[in-house]
Amino acid sequence: MVGITLMTIAIAAVLPLASAEAQRSKESELIFRGLQYAEGIRTFRRRYGRYPNSLKEMYEIRPRTIRKLWKDPIANADDWGLITITTGAPLPGAGGAPPGRGASATPTPAPTPTKSVFAGSAQAAPSGPISGVYSKSKKKGFRTFDGREAYNEWRFTEASLGIGPGGVNSPGGKPGPGV
Predict the structure, then answer these.
(1) For 37-69, what is each residue's pLDDT tens digit?
(2) Are strands 121-123 and 81-84 parallel, antiparallel or unpaired?
(3) What does the alpha-carbon distance between residue 166 and residue 179 come to, in Å, rounded to a whole number?
(4) Which residues lie across from 82 on neighbouring strands?
(5) How far is CA 28 from CA 35, 55, 75, 156, in A?
(6) What phi and psi values does residue 159 have, to the nearest 5 degrees?
(7) What is the 8-class DSSP label of residue 165?
(8) Domain extents in the chain
(9) What are the distances in angstroms from CA 93 to CA 33, 45, 57, 100, 104?
(10) pLDDT tens digits for 112-132?
């Protein structure tokens, strides 16, 4: 009986540690996937001179700007929160050609329809072009991202990449080590 009691106490002490480690792993995966979407959006904008209208558009238009459509690892759902552009400010190189490209550049793909389908589930159309994503989970994380605790406050946009205009690191506009 004493042995069983000691084993039960040991298991009760280890379970919260294992659960916390699993949650930290999901947080790392959320950051990785969110930054992959942010990079895909940045690449799409630079290549086509506009922001994508859906996540699926970045995957379907050739050449792709993302490798796959990822699930939100925290919510375990295909559905991401979408950060949209609501201003009408023209992008650099607006008019179909990305900056630095001439008329022979890859043409700007036609905007997607008003409704999009993300990995097989219906998703309401965003109110404008997509500039980033976030998790819809309202749980608080073990770590903070960009000074925010709750997962639904973690925003993954071009600003999260630390890349400023012209493709250089934001602070001071100068490339960092290894760039």
Answers:
(1) 999 999 999 999 999 999 999 999 999 999 999
(2) unpaired
(3) 13
(4) 133
(5) 11, 21, 14, 13
(6) -60, -30
(7) G
(8) 23-87+112-168
(9) 28, 10, 20, 8, 14
(10) 443 333 433 444 455 679 999
